Known about the structure:
- 25% of the residues lie in helices and 23% in strands.
- The protein is of the alpha+beta class.
- Strands 2-1-10-5-6 form a five-stranded mixed beta sheet. Strands 3, 4, 7, 8 and 9 form a five-stranded antiparallel beta sheet that branches.
- Strand 1 (105-110) and strand 2 (116-119) form a beta hairpin.
- The two termini are 30 Å apart.
- Mean pLDDT is 83; it is low at 1-31.
- Bound molecules: the ligand Nc1nc2c(c(=O)[nH]1)N[C@H]1C(S)=C(S)[C@@H](COP(=O)(O)O)O[C@H]1N2 and molybdenum atom (MO).
- The site of molybdenum atom has 6 residues, from loops.
Amino acid sequence: MKKRHLITRRNALIAGAASVGGYLLYRTIKSSPTPTYGNILRMGDAFTYEAQRALLSQKALAKEYTKEDISSFPATGTTNPADATKPSYNKEYAALHKNAFADWTLQVEGSVSKPGAYSLGDLRKFSSRTQITRHTCEEGWTAIAEWTGVQLGVLLQAAGIQSKARFVNFYCYDGYIDSIDMLDAFHPQTLLAYTMNGKPLPTQHGAPLRLRVETQIGYKSLKYLQRIVVTDEYVDPGDSGWAWYTGI
Ligand SMILES: Nc1nc2c(c(=O)[nH]1)N[C@H]1C(S)=C(S)[C@@H](COP(=O)(O)O)O[C@H]1N2
Ligand SMILES: [Mo]
């Protein structure tokens, strides 16, 4: 039986409230020094003891579900950058897609001592994490799926992230750009996911690699990843009208 996910007014209100809360937190982050990777390593200067405890406690993890909870999962926004009839069409992506992503690599650059390009095979060699989590779209729907991938923090450490780094910027084949701070980047559930429900990530869900940021609303979980730039500055999508930080 096919489960339907109705966009309910209640869910829309919850998503809206989460955005307002997120915006207040965002303003707080902006008005206080944003933690660098070095701050997080030292667990010192930028944080209070309570904040560190909250960060490290199990409560800081988003709820994880069981296989029985897995639901149907709508695809929204860009659903295929290889489709030449859509505005999101990207020629380079179309070529990679045609070749089943054999030539695809993820660029990792910026404030790292070992910038480089990682193939899917390279990413699969890292230890992986599997989690069943709920995605919350700002448009008011939620869905549950199982994701497997490499923790972003593991990759950043392998790339030699420098202690002054404050943000991670992401660039996608469909033109999406966004960024997260070091707390989210090193959150244990922040994954670069190559598997959804036990199968290679489907095209409509961001093949071959997407971000999963379980601490924030769905639009931070970028699909069709192309490039990661570690930096002291963040990129703001700006024109989207949504807050940069939208914790849930
Ligand atoms: N590159 C890219 N990432 C994206 C989007 C997109 O259109 N392009 N849409 C975002 C939004 S608003 C949501 S809700 C989720 C949708 O993911 P899904 O299509 O797998 O459900 O991806 C997010 N990441
Ligand atoms: Mo969304």
